[in-house]
Design goal:
By secondary structure, the protein is of the alpha/beta class. It has a single domain, classed as HesB-like domain (Hypothetical Protein Aq_1857, Chain: A), CATH 2.60.300.12. Helix content is about 20%, strand content about 45%. A four-stranded mixed sheet has the order 3-2-5-4. Strands 1-6-7 form a three-stranded mixed sheet. Strand 6 and strand 7 form a beta hairpin.
Length: about 110
Amino acid sequence: MQNQEPITLTPAAAERVLGFMQQEVDSIGLRLGVKKTGCNGYAYVVNIASKASDEDKVFEDRGVKIFVNQESISYLAGTEIDFVKQGLNESFQFRNPKVKGECGCGESFSI
């Protein structure tokens, strides 16, 4: 398998993920993927990982293991995950160099 660009976390994203992991007894890291959906084609899927698969590509950044399945890695390689608070709103944001367009609501993207 060829080397993939790493998936990375900003300090704010790592802190948020580690906080979520402390609340989950069996957590081992962050699971990141994509699914076909939305008005632009794809949406990010983010969960706390409780187990790894033999087919996962595993990255580690700022003390967090990031698990990505084989189907999603080509869409996500090189992505930086941030966690942003704006007023009462807070969310993960993705800086994905492969994205060509995003929908107005910010829920989906195209490659």
